[in-house]
Design goal:
Helix 13 packs antiparallel against helix 14. This protein has a two-stranded antiparallel ribbon with strand order 1-2. The mean pLDDT is 91. Strand 1 and strand 2 form a beta hairpin. With 327 residues, the chain is mainly α. It has 15 helices and two strands. It is elongated, with a radius of gyration of 27 Å.
Length: 327
Amino acid sequence: VKRARRAEAMGMATFYLGNVAAKAKDHERVIEVLASYGRDFPDQTAYGANALYYVLLAQLAKLDFEAAKAVHAEMVERYPTSSATGTGALKIYKVYADEQNAAEERGDADAARTALAGRAAYLHISNELSGDPSFVNLRQEGLLWTELEDWEKAEAATRRTIAAYGDSAEDDVQSKLRTSVKPALARSLLQQRRVQDAVDVFRELVSDDPEDEDPDKKASAETVADYCRALGGWIEGDGREVIEVPGVGDAASLAIANSWWKKLMAVESSRKGEEGRGVWTAPWYELRFMYAYTYYKWGQIDSKELDLARAQLLDLRQFLESEDFEP
């Protein structure tokens, strides 16, 4: 008993000695006193996580990012449920955010993506360990996984955001759920080829009739296009290998998709004054092709629609072969 009490007293004294150094911003002293705290006082779990958090802050203050990450890895191993471990993850997340911004400014795409992955990983740890993660952090995690195209993690993060804040009375939260979180969830399902699950989410966001839009369903063009793909299918590949990905594919779904592709073409055509947008640009051709492709899929179940698909494709090819075409 005496030995245990002595160890406890030593642990407390060591912690507060490091605490004093931290308040004095004596980073070297913090590291000297507290770096081995978890090993020296394994039973002092209440103090241990905070002791290593001070060491992490000291390493960041010294701009030793790798050392700070190593400290955090020890925190995850020794104190996986501590709020200090979650807060430490958020500190590392912010450094990765600065690294990503710097990489983007110098045009280093690989470094920017590495930093983006770091942001997602550490924000996930922070959100997991927080008893009440903020809407901003949960939403941001989902958007980061979406940008990384890690669709399973994007789905998990967006579902958690909706579960935590779906009943929020704040208009701004409800607006962001509708315009960014739920579209990200639907897209993550679509990319996992779970088209019916994706359609179920998209129908909360997009009206079935583009000429009679619900004011509460003013979705972005990107979200509408994703909805159309979920309904009618789409093509992936670079020309050497082509994969047809099926959508829901029934006649009603194809009719909705086609009406929206037509509306999206009209919207794109109206953007002619913008650089790289408008009629005869790459975005317009993609929409034009998807419009014809949906007729083609429709024609597999209704032969008269196949004639329309043929006409659309012939018209598109003739223009692409004409002298007026400018790639």
